[in-house]
Design brief:
heterodimer, A: 415 residues, mainly alpha, globular, B: 160 residues, alpha/beta, Rossmann fold
C-alpha cells in the first residue's frame, strides 16, 4: 500500500510540478523512503540502479546530441528541405513532414521532435501559406508512434532494450516493419482526417535556400552507424552517443568568445538534463518497491506467456492502457520485467507504450485529470480534435504494428 | 457600407481581390484574420506530456503561439498591400468559425472563400468551419472561389 502511495506522489509531483520544482525533488526522496522503510532491499535497489544507469546515460547523451544538432542548424535545414520539397502542395508538404518527423524521432528521440522540430514545421507551413494544423499534429503524433524503430528513439525503448537481450541491429530489424506500418496508418488517417485543410491550394512561395550542415549531419550519421558497429566490440552505445555529442560540442565551445567558453560548455552540459536522469533513477526504485509488493504478480497474471499473435496483441493492449493510466515511462518499468523472458513480448509492450500515449494527448489520463482539476483552464477545452484523431489512429496503429511485429518474428525464426 | 473580409491561409488572395472589385468606393473595409490558439495549446500539452523532462526548456507551444502571431500580422500586411486602398486590420484569437461570425456582426457584407477540395462544384468545396460561417453569418455573404471555378459539368447527374 505504501509503495502505491509513493508512486502516486512521485507521478502527481511530476505532473503538477509545484512552483516549477524539478520532478527529481519528489522522486529521489521517495526512493530514499522506499529504501529506508524496507520496501526495497539495498541489493535489489543497487541492481536496479546498475541496470538503469547505462540507460540513463544513453538518454542524457541523446538529449544533448539533439540540442547540439539544433545548434548546428540541422532542424532549420530540415524545415528548408520540407519547404522546397512540399512547395505549392499541402499534401506533398505533409508527406515530407511525415518522413522528416519519423526519421528525427527514430534517430534523435521523441523529445527532439516535440521540442525542436514542431516549431520549425509550423514556421515552414506558415511561410508556405499552408494551413499548418495537419503538419503540426503530424509532429506531435509521430513523436510517439514514430518512436518504435531504434533503441534510442524513446526512453521506453532504452529501458526495454537493456532487458530484451537484443542487439542494436536486432532490435531495429524486428521493429522496422511495425514502425513502417504505424507511420503508414498514421499517414492514411491524416490524409482523410485533414482532407479539407490539405485541399486548400497553396500559392507557391519562394523557398529559402539553406546550406546543409554537412559536418553535423555526418557526425549524426557516423554516430548512428557507430551504435551498430560498437556492439560486437563490447562498447556500450551510450559511449558512442556521448562521443558524437562531444564531437559536435567541441567546435561550438572553441568558437565561442574566450570569456564565454565556460558558460557555453555549461549550457551544453545542462542540455543533457541531469535532473531528468535522477528522476528516472528515483522512479525506477519506487516502481521496484511496487513490483515487489504485489504488482509483479498482478501483471504476470494479466500477461500471456507466449509471443503468438494473440499474446502480442494482449501485451500491446495492456501496455497502451497502462501508458494512458500512469504515463509511458512508469508503464514500461512495470511491464518490461514481467515479459523480459520473451523479446517478442517486450517489443509488443513497447508498441503499446509508444503508440498508446496518442490517445490522451497530454501523456496519460492521470495527467489530463490533474490538469483539469488543478489548472482549471480559463476557457473550456476547445476542439476535441486531438482526442478524435487519437481515437482514430491509436487502435488502428496498434493492430497494424502488432501484426507487423508478429510477421517479423515469424520471419526471423524461419530465417 | 461595412465590408468584413475573412482572410485564411491559402485562400485570402481571392477574398482581397473580390473585395477590391465589388466594394463601393465609400465602403469601409475590415481585413479579418483569426488564429485558433488550440493548435499551440495542443503542442504545449504534448510537451507537458513528456513527464519528467521538467518543462524548463523552450516550450514549443509558446514558440508556435509567437510564430502564429507573426504569421497573422504578415498575412494582414500582405493583404492590405494587395488591396491597395485604406482598410482596417483585425486580429482575433479563438475558435475560427465563431470568431468570424462574431466579427461579422453589424457588417453589411462578409467576404468568404471556399476552402475544401475545389476541383468540382458542390458542398465539399466548403470546409467545416467555412460551412459554419456561411450557415450562421449575420449579414450578406460574398462567397468566392479561390481559383477559377470548376465547370458546371462537374455536378454529378441527377439520380434517376
Amino acid at each position: 500500500m505504501w509503495s502505491v502511495a509513493l508512486l502516486a506522489v512521485v507521478l502527481a509531483f511530476a505532473v503538477v510540478r509545484p512552483r516549477g520544482l524539478p520532478e527529481a525533488t519528489a522522486a529521489v526522496p521517495a526512493a530514499v523512503v522506499a529504501l529506508a522503510g524496507g520496501l526495497v532491499p539495498w541489493a535489489a535497489a543497487r541492481d536496479e540502479l546498475v541496470a538503469l544507469g547505462p540507460t540513463v546515460g544513453f538518454l542524457a547523451a541523446i538529449l544533448a546530441l539533439a540540442h547540439l544538432a539544433d545548434a548546428w542548424g540541422v532542424f532549420a535545414f530540415a524545415g528548408a528541405v520540407a519547404a522546397r520539397a512540399g512547395r505549392g502542395s499541402p499534401t506533398r508538404l505533409l508527406t515530407v513532414v511525415f518522413a522528416i518527423a519519423a526519421s528525427v524521432t527514430a534517430v534523435l528521440s521523441l523529445d527532439a521532435t516535440v521540442v525542436l522540430l514542431t516549431p520549425v514545421v509550423f514556421a515552414t507551413a506558415a511561410a508556405a501559406g499552408v494551413r499548418a494544423r495537419p503538419h503540426v499534429y503530424a509532429c506531435t503524433h509521430l513523436a510517439n508512434s514514430g518512436s518504435l524503430l531504434l533503441p534510442v528513439s524513446n526512453l521506453t525503448n532504452l529501458i526495454a532494450f537493456g532487458a530484451s537481450g537484443l542487439t542494436f541491429l536486432g532490435f531495429a530489424g524486428l521493429m522496422a516493419l511495425p514502425w513502417l506500418a504505424v507511420v503508414a496508418v498514421e499517414y492514411e488517417v491524416f490524409r482523410r482526417f485533414f482532407a479539407a485543410d490539405l485541399a486548400v491550394p497553396a500559392a507557391p512561395a519562394p523557398a529559402p535556400a539553406v546550406r546543409a550542415p554537412r559536418f553535423a549531419l555526418a557526425v549524426l550519421g557516423l554516430t548512428l552507424a557507430g551504435f551498430a558497429a560498437a556492439e560486437p566490440v563490447r562498447v556500450a552505445p551510450a559511449w558512442v552517443a556521448a562521443a558524437g555529442a562531444v564531437v559536435l560540442a567541441v567546435p561550438l565551445v572553441v568558437r565561442a568568445p574566450r570569456a564565454d567558453r565556460l558558460r557555453t560548455a555549461g549550457r551544453l552540459f545542462l542540455e543533457t538534463n541531469p535532473l531528468f536522469c535522477f528522476f528516472v533513477l528515483g522512479l525506477g526504485v519506487v516502481v521496484l518497491a511496487l513490483r515487489r509488493h504485489g504488482l509483479d504478480g498482478l501483471i504476470s497474471s494479466l500477461t500471456p506467456a507466449r509471443a503468438d499473435l494473440l499474446g502480442l496483441l494482449a501485451v500491446a493492449g495492456l501496455a497502451a492502457l497502462l501508458a494512458n493510466l500512469v504515463n509511458n515511462v512508469p508503464a514500461t518499468l512495470v511491464l518490461v520485467p514481467v515479459v523480459a523472458h520473451s523479446p517478442g513480448l517486450v517489443l509488443a509492450a513497447l508498441v503499446g507504450v509508444n503508440v498508446g500515449p496518442n490517445l490522451t494527448y497530454v501523456g496519460s489520463l492521470a495527467t489530463l485529470l490533474w490538469r483539469r482539476i488543478l489548472h482549471a483552464r480559463a476557457e473550456p477545452p476547445g476542439t476535441t480534435m486531438f482526442l478524435r484523431l487519437g481515437a482514430l489512429t491509436v487502435p488502428a496503429c496498434l493492430l497494424a504494428a502488432v501484426a507487423a511485429l508478429w510477421a517479423g518474428l515469424r520471419l526471423s525464426t524461419v530465417l | 457600407m461595412r465590408v468584413v473580409v475573412w482572410l485564411a491561409e491559402g485562400t485570402w488572395q481571392a477574398c482581397v481581390d473580390a473585395a477590391a472589385r465589388w466594394a463601393t468606393p465609400a465602403a469601409t473595409l475590415v481585413l479579418l484574420h483569426v488564429t485558433d490558439p488550440d493548435l499551440a495549446a495542443d503542442v504545449h500539452d504534448a510537451y507537458e506530456g513528456l513527464v519528467g523532462r521538467g518543462g524548463r526548456g523552450p516550450d514549443p507551444g509558446a514558440a508556435i503561439s509567437e510564430a502564429a502571431a507573426r504569421a497573422s500580422a504578415a498575412l494582414l500586411a500582405a493583404a492590405a498591400a494587395r488591396l491597395g486602398r485604406p482598410s482596417t486590420p483585425l486580429r482575433r484569437l479563438g475558435r475560427v468559425e465563431r470568431e468570424v461570425v462574431a466579427a461579422a456582426e453589424g457588417a453589411d457584407v462578409l467576404v468568404v472563400a471556399r476552402d475544401g477540395p475545389v476541383t468540382r462544384l458542390g458542398p465539399h468545396s466548403l470546409g467545416p468551419p467555412t460551412r459554419f460561417v456561411v450557415d450562421h453569418a449575420p449579414c450578406a455573404v460574398l462567397l468566392v472561389w479561390p481559383e477559377a471555378p470548376p465547370p458546371v459539368a462537374t455536378i454529378p447527374p441527377p439520380p434517376p
